[in-house]
Amino acid sequence: MSTTNQQKFLNQTPIQQGLIGNFHRQFLATLVSVQPTSILELGCGEGYLLNKIHQQLPATPMLGLDTLAAALQEGHHLFPGLKLESGDIYHIHQPDASWDVTIASEVLEHLDDPKAAIRELKRVTKRYVLLSVPNEPWFRLGNFARGRHVRRFGNHPEHINMWTKKKFSRFVGHELTIEKSISAFPWTIVLARK
């Protein structure tokens, strides 16, 4: 059974693929602009985003961590060249300042304590934290318009935190220094410095 993350990548609807493609272009451009020397992704799922990063930066050491064993198993099958391991965003078993850039893409909206997760990402990064979340209310409205999660007014059942672009930047800014806040409709991408 595929995860909701994998379903998003397997959905061949042209509009959805266009939105995801635009998001990836902006996310990768932001990441490449800081010339990362190493990358740690938390909540990597099957490794779809990390694989895109690896294609763009093949010589850069990178590691993906996730708590879902089934997603990691699928990731090992789909992307055998990636290093994917079990790991918890609240308790990252990596030394302080051990990764140049840490990433959590479409993860924080799922968490009971996103502030603790940001602090842990900050702890293990040397320089930057790169984050993305759905930009509300646009993400929900898009779901609702295509008949998804109608009883929840378009809100994905796994999303417990919702931010506008401005509120997310403010939220992240309590722990990190915001370098860029980007709209990649219907997502927000934030690059922040330690």
Q: What does the model show?
A:
The chain is an alpha/beta fold. The chain has one domain: 3-Layer(aba) Sandwich (Rossmann fold). The chain has helices spanning 4-10, 14-33, 48-56, 69-78, 114-124, 138-145, 165-173; strands at residues 39-42, 62-66, 84-86, 99-105, 125-134, 177-184, 187-193. Strand 6 and strand 7 (187-193) form a beta hairpin. The longest helix has 20 residues, at 14-33. The chain starts with a helix and ends with a strand. 36% of the residues are buried.
Oligomer class: single chain
Second CATH tier, the architecture? 3-Layer(aba) Sandwich
How many β strands by DSSP?
7
If helices are DSSP runs of H or I spanning 4 or more residues, what is the number of helices?
A: 7
Mean pLDDT over all positions: 87
User: Strand order within the widest sheet?
Assistant: 3-2-1-4-5-7-6
What fraction of residues sit in β-strands? Answer: 15-25%
Helix content: 25-40%
Characterize this entry briefly.
This protein has seven helices and seven strands; from the N terminus they run H-H-E-H-E-H-E-E-H-E-H-H-E-E.
